[in-house]
Amino acid sequence: MDQNYQPYQPYESEQFQVPVVKNAAYYRSRAKAALKGKLPLASVASFVWAILQSTAMMVGIIPFYIIMIFQVIANEGNIEDPTFMLPMLLVCYAVMLLAALFVSAPLTVGFYRIHLDVIDGKPIQFSKMFSGFKNGFGKSIKVSLLYSLKIVLALLPFILFVLAGVVLATLVPSEAVQTLILAVMSITGYIITFVLIFVFVYRYSMVFYILAEYPEMRAIDVMRNSASLMKGRKWRLFCLQFSFIGWVFLLLLCGIVTCGFGIMVGSYVLSAYEITSTAAFYDD
User: Fold this and answer.
1) How far apart are CA 206 and CA 224, in angstroms?
2) Which of 19, 189, 224, 271 places its Cα 20 to 30 Å from the Cα of 151?
3) Using CA of residue 121, residue 225, residue 49, residue 194, what is the dihedral sign?
4) Which helix (H) or strand (E) holds 128?
5) At what angle do helices 261-283 and 24-35 cross, to 10 degrees?
6) 54-110 pLDDT per residue, tens
7) Residue 137: CB atoms within 10 Å
8) Which residues contact 210 (CB under 8 A, 6 or more apart)?
9) What span, in angstroms and rounded, lies between the C-alpha atoms of 221 and 207?
């Protein structure tokens, strides 16, 4: 052995820290610490966000019911031509889609901005709920459209497998075999679609957090950055969100005991807790 060799001797002041395991409990603990003294305001923010989104969605539904009421009154309780409902429903869905794009998307950006501030130790400012309308409004709409397109594409395997099953079934005379083919093809398509939706939802789960922090970023870059951030981390985020299942059951139990009041109040508290935990996940 080299005579000049000296074994490593740590200084007495040197401290060795065990690496932190960044699991669901870690992000929940970060959220608890960040929400200390802010949980009531964060819950109110969740309530305001939910009310604003519901109001935007109701814009498409209210005209439909108004016309329905006038039709019933005009026909003394009978609707002579119920086929008018189909175009009305299409119009309502179109209005709700526009509301989701032009209202819900920028609102979500502002809502997530509030929770990123909570994680950063900043005070809650309700004015930031509407920051998505001022910064990155057009980009939030583009991101929402791209996200929706990905989900629609994930539905294609189910549709294609069902159609293929129908075609194959027509080639077989036996009804039992036809039923079996349709069942197998439908289940296969459903499983593939379910997996794709799971992948897409978690791959692009960070888009609104990214847009809240970087409103100047292009929509396509927001999507790409979310996909990059979530590479190898989808299951971790799923485990984090699934870890709130116990709170959901407790909330349902409280709702039964309090005749629904517990759910009305507790859901917004739980929403603030869960979204702040996800914000901590993103911040990490």
Assistant:
1) 10
2) 271
3) negative
4) none
5) 110
6) 887 776 667 666 766 766 666 655 555 555 566 666 777 777 777 777 888 899 999
7) 15
8) 217, 222, 225, 226, 229, 282
9) 10
